[in-house]
Amino acid sequence: MRTSLRDDLTAALKARDRVAVTALRSALAAIDNAEAVPVDSASDSVTGNEHVAGAATGLGAAEAERRHLTEADLPSIVENEVQERSAAAQQYGQLGREDLAERLRAEAVVLSRYLR
Question: What is the pLDDT of residues 3-16, one digit of tens each?
Answer without folding.
Answer: 999 999 999 999 99
